[in-house]
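Milestone M4 deliverable, item 7.
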Amino acid sequence: MKRVSWGKAENPPLKSFRATVMDSNTFIRNCEAHSLEELAPYQGQYVAWSEDGTTILGHAHELRDLYKEMNSKGITDYVTDWVFAPDEISFGGAEL
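Output delivered:
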């Protein structure tokens, strides 16, 4: 019987979680600091924010297209969001 330990190429472990934790308070504060004028080009689209909320890394009208864009750029750490158009209203996840 062949013994195989975790972490060797023959038997890789499950994907591990990252060792760092995102600071959600900083993220929210930085996202809210962006003006409506800055966000205007992204209205009605999904965006990928940097983890600190200072930069929009990509955008697309469909979420799957945003994921494809992030994969093609090799970016793995980001936060997805929707930028509402001025005439859209959010009910906190409830759809009427």
